[in-house]
Design a protein that fits this description.
Protein name: Patched family protein
Structural class: alpha+beta
Number of helices: 14
Mean pLDDT: 82
InterPro entries: Patched_domain-protein
Number of strands: 6
Strand order of the largest sheet: 2-3-1-4
CATH superfamily of the largest domain: Multidrug efflux transporter AcrB transmembrane domain
Keywords: Membrane, Transmembrane, Transmembrane helix
Distance between the termini: 58 Å
Helix content: 55-70%
Strand content: 5-15%
Oligomer: single chain
CATH topology of the largest domain: Multidrug efflux transporter AcrB transmembrane fold
């Protein structure tokens, strides 16, 4: 699944705003500005190294290059060299004495006041020496109409700026919060899903009190969530905040279709055979499970008539979880439970009960009858 986000997903599809958003993609394909704020500008000895950093930023395939970059220092260097050449022509300096400095910066700002007055801060000491405090420049990108591409572009820019950390340069984008979310949504989804799954397992431990049963429930919940994610990917859904919220909701929602079946199976009468135990379990949970699932699905039907993507995605998630939950709760789990050795269903509980009995009662002849034959319980087999 592609980690991205489209703003139209949060608005009704027939709204004027949602209709206008695709048109804005043409603008981002041609012009995507990214402001770089430099909090510690380079001095005369660091100037060339700073330009190397800018060259790396402009070398990205999605960046236009020096022709579109609005960098104050490049144009100022030309101005400073021209001013120095005037001094050379008047015999006030030698051609080889040029050294880059910021002493002519105030005059340059005055001559280009409308262009740079808000992009630079500098101080002038009593000797007339100019110190540049901070400034910003504009890096222009292209072919960045997709939000995921803008997120990758921002990440790459940050990587270059991190290698030149002495300049304390930071990128600024109005949509940085959403772009950062796209960069972390995959890891956040995996982490959140695992934590939620463990929480569901912890709750199951309190009620089922059987290691095998808890493992089966946890595996079934994970299977439902993987199936949901696969079906959404197959349907063309993106890995965005909407999908992330729906997945976390599905983890908690799917426990209703798994825990009840396993709970009733392991709480059944010990003398029952696996088939009889399963029949008793389905008799207790099948019809309530069907009622709960169908009523939930019916409640979601009105949402299908809305035109907002986020709401439709939520309704579709509920439908998928109900369908897949039915399949796991009524078909997959019964097959798994009956395929497991019979001792898994009674061993933990019967042994746990016997630990509190007197020693003489360990050897009481308790026989379990199933499949028209008599067989000692697993605990008795181990003791006799």
């Amino acid at each position: 699944m592609r980690a991205t986000f489209e703003p139209y997903k949060t608005f009704p599809s027939d709204s004027s705003l949602a209709i206008s958003l695709p048109r804005a993609k043409r603008i981002y394909d041609e012009f995507t500005p990214l402001t770089i704020i430099v909090n510690r500008p380079p001095n005369a000895t660091e100037y060339r190294r700073f330009l190397n950093m800018v060259d790396e930023l402009e070398a990205f395939p999605t960046a236009y290059g020096p022709d579109r970059t609005q960098l104050l220092l490049r144009t100022y260097e030309k101005y400073d060299r021209a001013a120095f050449q005037v001094a050379v022509d008047w015999g006030e300096a030698k051609p080889d004495d040029y050294h880059f400095n910021y002493n002519n910066l105030p005059n340059y700002i005055k001559s280009n006041k409308e262009a740079f007055q808000n992009d630079v801060k500098f101080d002038v000491d009593q000797k007339g020496q100019v110190t540049l405090s901070s400034f910003s420049f504009l890096l222009v990108g292209r072919q960045l109409s997709e939000w995921c591409e803008r997120a990758v572009f921002l990440r790459n820019v940050r990587g270059v700026l991190a290698r030149y950390s002495d300049f304390q340069a930071l990128p600024y984008d109005l949509d940085a919060s959403l772009l950062d979310l796209m960069l972390t949504v995959k890891g956040s989804l995996i982490t959140s899903s695992i934590v939620t799954l463990f929480c569901m397992a912890a709750v199951c431990v309190l009620f089922i009190q059987n290691k095998i049963g808890v493992a089966i429930v946890t595996s079934a919940i994970a299977s439902i969530c993987f199936t949901l994610l696969g079906l959404q990917s197959w349907a063309g859904a993106d890995l965005d905040p909407v999908t992330m919220v729906n997945m976390l909701m599905a983890v908690g929602f799917s426990v209703d279709y798994t825990a009840h079946t396993v709970y009733h199976y392991y709480k059944g009468e010990e003398q029952l055979s696996p088939i009889d135990r399963l029949a008793s379990t389905l008799k207790a949970v099948a019809w309530p499970m069907i009622q709960a699932g169908l009523s939930t699905a019916i409640c979601m039907v009105p949402l299908m008539f809305l035109t907002t993507y986020a709401i439709l995605a939520f309704a579709k998630t509920v439908f998928i979880v109900v369908a897949v939950g039915f399949f796991h709760g009524l078909f997959v789990l019964p097959v798994v439970l009956t395929a497991l050795p019979y001792s898994f269903a009674v061993h933990d509980r019967c042994c746990r009960r016997r630990r509190n009995l007197p020693a003489k009662q360990y050897f009481i002849d308790e026989k379990l009858t199933y499949n028209d034959s008599e067989k000692l319980s697993p605990c008795t087999d181990n003791l006799l």
